[in-house]
Amino acid sequence: MTNRVMALAAAALIPLGCLGGRSEASDPRPAIVRETPRPALAVSTRKARGTCPLTLPNGRMPPSRNDVGANHGNGKLWTTMWPHDVVIATPDYIEPDGSVVMKWPWWRGVDGRLSITGRRLDGKAPPLTADIPDYGRSGFQVSAISFPTAGCWEVTGAVGDTKLTFVTLVLKASRYWPLAKDN
């Protein structure tokens, strides 16, 4: 077969594999080898009003970093976004009052103390709060952002007149994804 014919044959078979073309009864692998289906991560069913205009990371990162990932910045202030710009908080990150507290990294290319503010875009909620320990006046800065509710949040980090704003979605997972089947 030519490479083109093989590529077309493979392309035709990929959708069949994605649609689950093989039944468990016809699966030649022993039952112990078959993958156990895992439930999807259960997310709070509270519906948000409208849509959430998530910020797509622009890939900009501080000069001191050279990794790839969901980096977002403006040349003076940078952060790293959560995967797909969605924060999925497992029970460990949900406070007794229902708020979600997540660590959030920042890098400052200008001198000054970082401040973080934010508001919910898809419903009523108090503004977010942030715990920002003293890491000096420039460079890396860790923070803990407390989102009072799940929902669509606009977050702004600021150092003096320098600001960086992004929109993220915060969801609460009702349980953990099982790592292994209980016996």
Description of the structure:
There is one protein chain. The protein has one helix at residues 3-18; strands at 71-73, 77-80, 86-89, 100-108, 115-120, 129-131, 139-147, 151-159, 162-172. It has a domain at 71-172: Immunoglobulin-like. Helix content is 9%, strand content 32%. The strands form two sheets. The chain has a five-stranded antiparallel beta sheet with strand order 1-2-4-7-6, with no helix packed on it. A four-stranded mixed beta sheet has the order 3-9-8-5, with no helix packed on it. With 183 residues, the chain is mainly beta. The N and C termini lie far apart (48 Å). It contains one helix and nine strands. Mean pLDDT is 76; it is low at 1-48. A hairpin with a 7-residue loop joins strand 6 and strand 7 (139-147).
Strand content: 25-35%
Biggest sheet descriptor: 5 strands, antiparallel
Q: Could you give me the name of the CATH homologous superfamily of the domain at 71-172?
A: Immunoglobulins
Number of helices: 1
Q: Tell me, rounded to a whole number, the average pLDDT.
A: 76
Q: Strand order within the widest sheet?
A: 1-2-4-7-6
Examine the secondary-structure arrangement and name the CATH architecture of the domain at 71-172: Sandwich
Instruction: Estimate the helix proportion, in percent.
Output: under 10%
- The dominant shape is globular
* Topology order in helix (H) and strand (E) letters: HEEEEEEEEE
User: How many angstroms separate the termini?
Assistant: 48 Å
**CATH fold label of the domain at 71-172:** Immunoglobulin-like
Low-confidence stretches: 1-48
CATH C-level of the domain at 71-172 = Mainly Beta
Question: How many β-strands, per DSSP?
Answer: 9
Helix vs. strand class: mainly beta
From the alpha-carbon coordinates, what is the Rg to the nearest angstrom?
A: 22 Å
